Amino acid sequence: MPASSSSGIMPQQPRLPMESTTTLALDIAEGSLLKDGFLAFDDPLVGEGIAEMEKRGFPYFTDYGSDFCEEFAFDERIRFIFEASFEKCSLGHWLRYGEFPGNVECFRRGGPKAGRYVLMVHLWAKGSQVAYYVGSHHHNITTSRDNRSLYEIPLSELNRVGSKPKHKESPDSSS
């Protein structure tokens, strides 16, 4: 499983111009976020962008890094969802994670009491594999801090609340 960049919305579907974004599309996105806890777009261009960032040594704090963030993490589809969801929005976390197989992590805990104050954008390298646990955000799940300062969730907790994994694989643009 290749490393990923993470800044959850996972940009991954063919990019549509802003004019194509309708109230219906926003309703579908909102429904997926509320019900499942994530929204995934299948976009091979993201994987190509990650590969180029990796070749350059992940220069986040450069003009190239800023352009990359704007193009992929804040593309029109994602900005539209952010702007419709929050009165004010800011970038709070922009870094690269390596693989961490066999572990289930979450970036925020608290279940429904936590509310929705955070939307995350995950940009996955080509061929990356991830499992999002559907509906886990609806439950107050026992977590512990992991070695990356995130929260780790025991599989037994996800099983207890009936949250099943939805497996995603980032498309390889060469296929």
Note down, in words, how this protein is organized.
With 175 residues, the chain is α+β, with helices and mostly antiparallel strands. The chain has one domain (4-169). Helices cover 30% and strands 17% of the residues. The protein is built from 5 helices and 10 strands; from the N terminus they run E-E-H-E-H-H-H-E-E-E-E-E-E-H-E. The protein has helices at 23-35, 44-55, 63-73, 76-85, 155-160; strands spanning 4-6, 9-10, 39-40, 95-97, 105-106, 122-124, 129-133, 144-145, 151-152, 165-169. Strands 4-1-6 form a 3-stranded antiparallel beta sheet, covered by helices on one side. Strands 5-9-8 form a 3-stranded antiparallel beta sheet, with no helix packed on it. A hairpin with a 5-residue loop joins strand 8 and strand 9 (151-152). The longest helix has 13 residues, at 23-35. The chain is globular and about 45 Å long.
Considering the chains and any ligands shown, give keywords for the structure.
single chain, 175 residues, alpha+beta, three-stranded antiparallel beta sheet, 5 helices, disordered N terminus
The H/E string reads EEHEHHHEEEEEEHE
Strand content: 15-25%
- Proportion of helical residues: 25-40%
Shape: globular
Assembly annotation: single chain
Spatial order of the strands in the main sheet?
A: 4-1-6
Number of helices: 5
Largest sheet report: 3 strands, antiparallel
Radius of gyration: 16 Å
Terminal Cα separation, in Å? 17 Å
The total number of structural domains is 1
Name the structural class: alpha+beta
Q: What's the rounded overall pLDDT mean?
A: 79
- Count of extended strands: 10
Contiguous low-pLDDT stretches (5 residues minimum) are 1-19
